[in-house]
Amino acid sequence: MGRIMANSSNSGERIVANNKKAFHDYFILEKLEAGISLLGTEVKSIREGRINLKDSYAMIKGGEPYLLNCHISPYSHGNRENHDPTRERKLLLHHKEIRKLIGKSQEKGLTLVPLRVYLKRGRFKVEIGVARGKKIYDKRETERRKEADREAQAAMRRRR
Fold it and tell me: Is the pTM higher than 0.85?
């Protein structure tokens, strides 16, 4: 079926893509689920697992949220009518959520970052995070904490 990263059987979701770099580069303050407006060949390509969120971000343009720089590879069985891989894709949210995002995105130092793309009840959803950038020393501290947790887990396993 492609490069499907994980199965979340308890909630009926199938994760298609994760943005691991977002968790490394940002503190995620808040998460929000959004629908995404896709073309037919994009849907088929995502089902094959050919989506990359690495350098993508979300932005409010003209009062509407858009996902930018998200790379969805052209569909393998497509023809010349295939989609542009990095086109702007509209995010589908309620007006109340859009107003909330506008307020958050205008705060200094906050940005909107896609965290994952998943299939939920037959529809592709994007989890958007309101994020604040990490400094280099924050990244080092996070890395130290993860390493300490790994060592503690390994010690617990050896102890058993």
Answer: no
